[in-house]
Amino acid sequence: MEQSTLNFIFIGISFAIYIGIAFKSRASSTKEYYTAGGGVSPLANGMATAADWMSAATFISMAGSLAIGGYDGSRFLMGWTGGFVLLTVLMVPYLRKFGKATVPDFIGDRYYSKLARGVAVVCAIFICMTYIMGQMRGVGVVFSQLFGIGIPAGVLIGAAIVFFYAGMGGMKGITYTQVAQYCVMAFAYTIPAIYISIALTDNFIPQLGLIGDYVAGGEYVPFLEKLNAINEELGFSHYTSGSISRIDMFFITAALMCGTAGLPHVIVRFFTVKDVLAVRKSACWTLAFIAVVYLTAPTIGAFSRVNLIEKLHETTYVDAPKWFKDFESTGQMAWVDKNDDGIIQYYGPAKSDTNSNTVFAGKAPAYPVAGSATDVLVGKHKQRLLTNEVITSNPNELWFGNDIMVMANPYMAGLPPWVIALLMAGCIAAALSTAAGLLLVLSTSISHDLMKKIIKPDLSDKEEVAYARVAALVSLIVASYFGINPPSAFIAKTVAFAFGLAASSFFPTLLLGIFAKRMSREGAIAGMICGIGFTMGYIIYFQFLGGTKEQYLFGISPEGIGTLGMLINFATAFLVNTVSPPPPPEVQEMVENIHIPSGAGEASEH
Q1: CA distances from 555 to 255, 277, 341 (A)
Q2: 349 and 420 in one domain?
Q3: CA atoms of 542 and 524, how far apart (whole Å)
Q4: How many CB atoms lie within 10 A of CB 434?
Q5: Can you tell me the distance from the alpha carbon of 297 to that of 58, in angstroms, rounded to the nearest whole number?
Q6: Which of 101, 193, 513, 572 fits 34 for a cystine, CB–CB 3.0-4.6 Å?
Q7: How far apart are CA 374 and CA 401, in angstroms?
Q8: C-beta separation of 212 from 201 below 8 A
Q9: Is residue 65 domain-resident?
Q10: What is the DSSP letter of 317?
Q11: Which residue has the higher pLDDT, 432 or 360?
Q12: Which one of 342, 376, 400 terminates a domain?
């Protein structure tokens, strides 16, 4: 059976399951739309939260970052996993006891202010829109490869599917759809890793294979030693060493951690269980389910790095494997013959300056990277001719996007067609699951926190759900545009911006709202505005207005600036709080009471 046919079968079956679940579980009230009725079991919620958490950035882009950057890519692993621990320890038990449906709901009541609620809604919109851009980009990357179409068309197809089951089913539909999506993702991620681990290391447990011996081709050397030797031979830094500065690595990791603890679409997932005890059980299940993928990602990154170099470096283009030309036809990989020898060459910084492949032999005719397969201009070696700036400015002849490595990995390893089809279904499930959760938070922030709580308090349940669905449609249209024209072509980098925005806005405000009973509304509002304003301005300047690396403040990249924005938020909040009146006594009492276990009675003065 053809690979494309298998892909369609696997993806078609998974879509039918998702849409069937969404239709059967569609929300009929605001409580079901926002919190799935509050009766989801800890096990099911743990699976759904893991699916919501493991976005396209995790499933598609993180392993690619590890494959290309090695140690540098570990910032995503450390930041995201460490942040989830912060979230479950410092945030969700208290927020769940408070009993509100959204993060702006908590901020509005805790800081006794419609203005605070309004600022929180604006922050939620910016965070979720930035995050969903990366998810829609991931959907586009997968669909473009599956159907041989451009990324823009892939984004639009994914957007239509997300709107159907997220906009119609609400949190109830999303929750049970994400349970199915997690199952698809877990199998899709681990089964290829097991196959490749056996082939390269003769070990069926990928994590043990990573620290075991490389046995392919009759060699018996430690796998990481082999990987470091390959990198060094080609002029790259050792896979197990980093090139990002220490301060930037720290700030990026901290931004990812604290941003995780402030992400509204993950926090709201814990409002779907019945009580605080269920929240803690759900958090344990979630960490266990996340570990399945996060402990496998480093192995996929390392294995794909070896396979890529072994299969393509110093290979003549006419003998290049079919999968390379398939990825080339959709613009995910490319070869520019810069020294006109017909050989694909891939060198690192230490060697590229001494090899003639850095000299571009003339101007090639124009061809768009993500264009159609018709009217392709070819060179004398029958290669696609490209003048895309990203590719031709690259010091290498071989170009590929970080986000394609996970999808290319099973092709490079020669895995069975059904395994490749399963992986494709998993890639789509990862992007769609998080996109759906983000879309729900966007729509509820607008319908519940903005319309119901601020603009039109007399809205009926039916009208509120209708506003939520309209908001979901508009949000998805905007997100699709930025999915087609993202701030960064690298999915994980785009998502990292969202974490920076969450770290600089929600994390300090929620933390102070839970643990600092005397924090005033003036302090919280000023902190949020200053924190997210600084962070967003920094990101916009360096991503859209031509800022250069030499201008980085203290050497901190836009991915890590959220940490500095968070510190500005804290400092501003405390400074303004010193000259503001304290919160009303009933608010201070409310803050004390959310620290008391259920059934233990009210908090006393002392």
Answers
A1: 15, 43, 40
A2: no
A3: 27
A4: 30
A5: 8
A6: 101
A7: 22
A8: yes
A9: yes
A10: G
A11: 432
A12: 400
Task: Report phi then psi at 221, rounded to 5.
Answer: -135, 155
User: What pLDDT is recorded for position 181?
Assistant: 81
| Whether 286 and 366 share a structural domain | no
- Domain termination residue (choose one: 345, 374, 400): 400
First CA to last CA distance, the chain: 73
- Same domain flag for 278 and 385: no
**In Å, how far are 69, 87, 225, 364 from 240, measured between CA atoms?**
9, 29, 9, 37
Asked whether residue 248 is assigned to any structural domain, the reply reads yes
Do 196 and 290 lie in one domain? The reply is yes
Show the tokens assigned to 305: 């790095």
Out of 40-44, 54-58, 338-342, 441-445, which region has the weakest mean confidence (pLDDT)?
Answer: 54-58
Contact present, 530 and 572 (Cβ < 8 Å): yes
Residue-wise pLDDT for 449-485, tens only, equals: 788 778 887 877 777 778 877 887 888 888 788 777 7
The answer to whether residues 581 and 438 belong to one domain is yes
Whether 603 is covered by a domain: the verdict is no
| Range(s) of the domain holding residue 268 | 3-304+416-593
Q: Residue 58 belongs to a domain with what CATH number? A: 1.20.1730.10
pTM confidence score: 0.75
Same domain, 220 and 347: no
Distance CA 558, CA 131 (A): 15
Q: What single-letter amino acid sits at 201?
A: T
In this structure, are 557 and 453 located in the same domain? yes
SS3 130: helix
- Same domain as 186, residue 120: yes
CA-to-CA separations, 334 to 372, 384, 400, in angstroms, rounded: 14, 8, 6
Query: 3-class SS at 129?
Result: helix
User: How many structural domains are present in the chain?
Assistant: 2
Distance CA 243, CA 228 (A): 14
Q: Is residue 246 over pLDDT 50?
A: yes
Structure tokens given for 454: 């601020």
Q: Please, what is the average pLDDT of the chain?
A: 78
**Residue 203 Cα distances to 209, 349, 350, angstroms:** 5, 33, 33
Residue 439 lies in a domain: yes
| Residue type (1 letter), 320 | A
